[in-house]
Give the backbone structure.
Amino acid sequence: MPSAAQLDDTMLALADPTRRAILKRLARGEARVTELAAPFDMTLNAVSKHIRVLERARLVNRRRDGREHILSFNPKPLDEAAVWIERQRNFWNARLDALERALREDDET
Amino acid sequence: MPSAAQLDDTMLALADPTRRAILKRLARGEARVTELAAPFDMTLNAVSKHIRVLERARLVNRRRDGREHILSFNPKPLDEAAVWIERQRNFWNARLDALERALREDDET
DNA sequence: GGCATATTATACCTTTCGGTTGAATAATAA
DNA sequence: TTATTATTCAACCGAAAGGTATAATATGCC
């Protein structure tokens, strides 16, 4: 059961194209900060901040190897977000099913 | 193929507990603005703004009936968000599978 | 030691967020 | 017509987002 605050953090982290791109990259394997920053037309500092947002959401873990910080992907919060989304979809579908049932009953009278 | 901007809007809309609660309510059926606002300890105006954010993300549709605005749930952007999340998870799992295969091959030598 | 490299910290700026209050608009009811 | 009800609009506020430039902190290398 993901807390509301955890979902807030996760969704917020996903609500930015730079951060989604970083995650995409990390889903394929670890990387250092500089490597992650390379594709982007912004300061290393800005990317560093984006990484911190991803860390706050626990989507990214940091390990230090000398002066290099090595980032890795943690899918767990993504799972929790997916569960929330799936649940709403289920409620929605259940409602449509009930509506359909009701219409069918109506037909039979 | 959801545009980056569409995903931005969707994720941002989901990154707030009030808006998630509103969506949850709407997944069970339409409601008016006042009805949606009732459970929350904030101004009707604030809720009205949250609804606008949900509309911008196309998660909510508005229909007018006299002076009442009737809001309904649109699951489409939720589907697109789920697809994005699922895709990252797949990349991640593929990577783990490859790692496992590599380890197994190593065993056989 | 001294210099280059990897990364964060701090301070600052502009825009957006989430909320408020108070006024405007539109539709219904008396 | 005059209230009352449903909703938005507009202005404002403090806090956070997303970016910059510059300084600080480690670590690695000669």
Notes: The radius of gyration of chain B is 20 Å. The beta strands of chain B are 31-32, 60-65, 68-73.
